[in-house]
Amino acid sequence: MKNLFAKTLAGFGALILAGTAAVADPAIVYSVGGKFDGSFNESAYAGVQRFENDFKTKVREFELERDAQSLQALRNFASRGNEPVVAIGFNQASSVTQAAKEFPDTSFAIVDMVVDAPNVASYVFKENEGAYIAGLLAAMASKTGTVGFVGGMDIPIIRRFLCGYQLGAHSVDPDIKVLYNMAGTTPAAFADPARGAELARSQIGRGADVIIQAAGGTGIGVLQAVADAGVLGIGTDSNQNGLHPGHVLTSIRKRVDNAVYDSFKTARDGDFKPGVRVLGLADGGMDWVLDDNNKSLVTQEMIAAADAAVTGISTGKIKVHDILTDGACPQP
Amino acid sequence: MSSGQLPRWVDFGLIPVLNLIAAFLVSGLVVLLIGENPLEAVRILLWGSLGFGEGVGFTLFYATNFIFTGLAVAVAFHAGLFNIGGEGQAYIGGLGVAWACLALDHYVPWWVTMPFALAGAAIMGAAWAFIPAWLQAKRGSHVVITTIMFNFIAAALMNYLLVNIMVKPGSMQPETRTFEAGGKLPFLKEFVPGIDFGTAPVNLALIIALLASVAVWLIVWRTRLGYEIRAFGANATAAVYAGISPVRVIVITMLISGGLAGMMAINEIMGSQHRLLLEFVTGYGFVGIAVALMGRAHPVGIVLAAILFGMLYQGGAELSFEKPAITRDMIIVIQGLVILFAGALEHMFRPALIQFFTYSRSPAEQAG
User: Fold this and answer.
1) What is the DSSP string of A230-248?
2) pTM of the model
């Protein structure tokens, strides 16, 4: 009885609060990198902005400072009637599981991890597929027969990207050399442009003439060094073609913005669907960018090959190895 | 009137309070500058950290971490050593905790696992402090340099272990499996009746931290070893002349210091996360330096300073939640100001106070 009373009271509290903040504003909790991390979170933020512009509404935001805050933030939003509550980043999975249990009538979404609950939509990406296209384009653009990869922190998700890149490159030329370096072993490895530039220069010194960055903020240095040396770079996460026009071969986008936008919009339209959505090349969850900044670099032949690979992967004819499910990366 | 000719209550009470007020005044100006009401901000900060059960729980949870790392820095201070490797020592301490929990959690209840986890944390933390200590004692390599280097080595080692060896197969995140009940410390709300800390992970480690504070007090002020440590810290040359072995003091002090830092992992790993994961220390080791400075390297002061920083962490989170204009970076600015005023500008008000108290105490002497 006491419990019921407390719940009713909490419900009223939520109603009053929600009333002041316009009913059912969506909410988002960014992961520890912060919403201006220049890559993953910022892509989510782009989705937030697009939604705010399209529907003339506000989105409540919170940036985690440490993982311990995640559950607290999710509960805060849910208890104030914000819906859906979107969590960015796999580190929030256990918190989303818990919060979804406590607020069964609120819809939640999580990006980059699967949470199995009746009120949670999970969005995960096949980064390895995007990386495959990057490897393929890099190998075709390379004149020296050596391409490079600069990763951020040495963690499985980056290694998976590397594996896709290697496979893509080898699909063009089985003898191609793929140089790779990781920038470090702490999260600082995602925010060290000087180190990124240094690694890129060393790879250029060893003959690489196309280098991809999978290193967040560190990658800005990679692209800078590549442009300075007059060779080619490949951007990731968001469209980085415009950073150094003529020196960025393409960008491999991970459409976190689409995932965020989709979850907000479906909830707004009342057709929010829980369950897992795996986004890859087939559904535009990953894509590669061709625009005014790089069209002079990409030949018709490369476009045809990339399109063929996208089709092949989408139809399942080409299967890109995923180190998380399929084990260690096959070496040719 | 030994330390700086000031009464103890001024030294340990008034000066920290003055520093804190100065820090908050400057923070208030910053908040005003971005167009928010500073009084409102203070209200949210206090309410968020002390106003409701869950807030108090989180404040105490963060405070537990700061007590351990603060004590670690303080013990080293007393021997004139500046251990800024708490970050790495706590990180490696997590390894000791995880080994104990992963090995035992299937077979025994938590209270059997706990002593092993505690020992693991302390031994691993101490071991990580041992090499810098030995290098300082035998080779004169400065601990400030070596301990901070060891933070990076710890990060590299843990990254290697978690990515390649200890990772749960198929997991996207480099972390071990979640411990079973036998590897989880009970939350405080489970055995303190009538208290509701909500979802706050404050746990038994808080009690361990308080016991550790008492132990540090006993060691530093009530044992022969503590006397040697303090004597060595006050004047190393005189201590050696008096027959105190510098190698022994440096090594033992650093082992205690490292062990205390390592025990922070008990709170995070066994008390809250229930799995070993990357970067769980996230700066607690460094904030421990500020806590020790502010707490005047005394356990009572450290506990109080730890609670203050716990309030800043928890209240700060609530503040950035309530006021989107005050971002989490602003919260770091406020924390930074507190550290600046309490640590670096520690002596700012001191000369004025000394003048004031000397004058008001013995005007006759002054005149004569």
Assistant:
1) T-EEEEEES--TTTSTTTE
2) 0.83
